[in-house]
Amino acid sequence: MLFKAGQSGRDLLKKDKPMLPESLGVYVAGLYLTVLTLFIPINYLGKANHSTLVSYLSALLSICCMILLGFVDDVLDLRWRDKVFLPAVASLPLLLVYFVNEGITYVTVPIPFREYFGNYIDLAIFCTNSINILAGINGLEVGQSVVIAIFIMLHNIIQIMLNISPQLCENNYFSLYMLIPFTTLSLTLLKYNWYPAKVFVGDTYCYFAGMTFAVVGILGHFSKTMMLFFLPQIFNFVFSVPQLFKMVPCPRHRMPNLNVTSGKLENSFAEFDLSEVNIIGLICIKILRALGLIDLKKAANEERVIISNFTILNSCLIWFGSLSERDLAKLMIFLQIFACLFGLSVRYGFSNLLY
Amino acid sequence: MLFKAGQSGRDLLKKDKPMLPESLGVYVAGLYLTVLTLFIPINYLGKANHSTLVSYLSALLSICCMILLGFVDDVLDLRWRDKVFLPAVASLPLLLVYFVNEGITYVTVPIPFREYFGNYIDLAIFCTNSINILAGINGLEVGQSVVIAIFIMLHNIIQIMLNISPQLCENNYFSLYMLIPFTTLSLTLLKYNWYPAKVFVGDTYCYFAGMTFAVVGILGHFSKTMMLFFLPQIFNFVFSVPQLFKMVPCPRHRMPNLNVTSGKLENSFAEFDLSEVNIIGLICIKILRALGLIDLKKAANEERVIISNFTILNSCLIWFGSLSERDLAKLMIFLQIFACLFGLSVRYGFSNLLY
Lengths: 355, 355
Known about the structure:
The structure is a homodimer. The first copy, chain A, is 65% helix and 7% strand. The first copy, chain A, has helices at residues 25-44, 50-76, 80-83, 86-90, 92-105, 113-133, 140-162, 166-193, 202-219, 223-229, 231-244, 279-290, 312-320, 325-349, 351-354; strands at residues 8-10, 19-21, 257-259, 264-266, 269-273, 296-298, 304-308. Mean pLDDT of chain A is 86; it is low at 104-110. The radius of gyration of chain A is 22 Å and the shape is globular. Chains A, B: Pfam families: Glycos_transf_4 (PF00953). Chains A, B: One of its GO terms (molecular function) is glycosyltransferase activity.
């Protein structure tokens, strides 16, 4: 059905470049919304707490808006600079309701409106786009989301066991309600999206996953802790900045290339003249090269250089040599798990210093 | 942008059959959601009434789900028998929340669960699909929706002026909040969708409009009155039943045909052998022919007959002769206005007998 509607794409990192159905994320996301909707009477029937139901509904509404916008993006292929701000639009219901809700509960406390709004919109934009940027090989988008979700749930369980205050417990239970169905459904999707992928998940899934995390972080009041589980994404984003903001030339696709003979992935490169790059770009290249994150070679034409693209995937290929797509995906998942473990230990080991 | 994504269709009732962008409804619907979201702080900030905010959010969530499903349908072209039940899925958030909400407010009153649920799901399915069926010529979907919305608002204003009880007033204000932006945005869309159309609205719009009416009818507690404004849709649906349920052969498209020489619309026909039709079908044909609603002729091949399709559009062409597309659309809008006026007078003139 997706094929017929033109919702399909070529898997560029396979020898025969097969056509795969795209936007499978929209099914999973729809199923997720249905499950959470069916939870409403289970969780709230007979309880007099309207305030938490309001939060829950605003969360669903924001996720639903994000899925809608993500699917529109998949179908219409919006421009990059428009896409970045879709999560801001979708997070409006959540933020406005949160604001109204807090306004009712703590009406005496003046809320620093702009600062607080800005932070949370940033969170929504960051969560969605950082997952969307760290992508390009089979299973990576879904895999990293599952790992992050599992670590957030671990954090929630620890918090509930510490039992600091009833309000805190409730926030963490809320997060679990949201993430258990998310993880289950994502694992099912991962089965089909893992190498060799039978389906693509589309931008819809990245937006959906990112928005779910943002919602959980905002309403669960642990957005700072959550950032600790996004370390690879933060690193990848900062690393990408010189290319994303055109300080260094950026090709259309930055994912690794397939070496057809060996069947392994190799670095993809951007080729350009060093004189085209301004001083900031040159400094970036120098620093990143010194750190061993990028590879720089003279091109066949003596005056030009080729430089590996600024993504964490390319850096991994520099450090570990050529890898098959499956191995690179595994490596990235291990990296994510390692980073999340580090984040969790920072949260509970050094939290006195940070918070 | 919609063209590039394959979201376009031919306008079959024009001489040159131009390609027009489709699914424009999704923009309007998205804008509508944004406007209603921005209303949240205006309406609810500082008020302690969480219960109405819960209703409002569940309404937005249902409409958002419906838009998402409608757009998925536009892109994927779902089968007819799946489409019919999409509104039931989308109305779940509304109904479950309503149930929970009532459960809190009137917890002592046992609600006849199944009966009540069934009624409201029926309402959602009816409102969306009846608008979707009465379609096929430029401006008709949007035009009828605007007329219905205006009459519902008239009803609301009358109710508010009668000022029977504060609860009733609040319900009617709620309906106005929902319908004023809807009407404004639909009128803008109508400007581009009216003959000769520059855009198509897609199933997205029909679902969106129908769901908005269903939500307003359910939460405003005037679903029976609303049915009075849907008389042409009810008539068209009942009239279509013999073809929809295959008692009489049903061609792929049932909208009128264009006579290229005169530039006017003429009846479209289904051709078949009378012996193919079972006894129920024959009775339907006999009754409808006696009422002058359908036209039956001998086909060129003596053994077969041709029969005008069972839609209100075809009946109008029988009564009034060939009409241009613009005139037929105008006629239908007048019919809708007339039917709504009749409905309104029934509601206020004979309400003692009916309610």
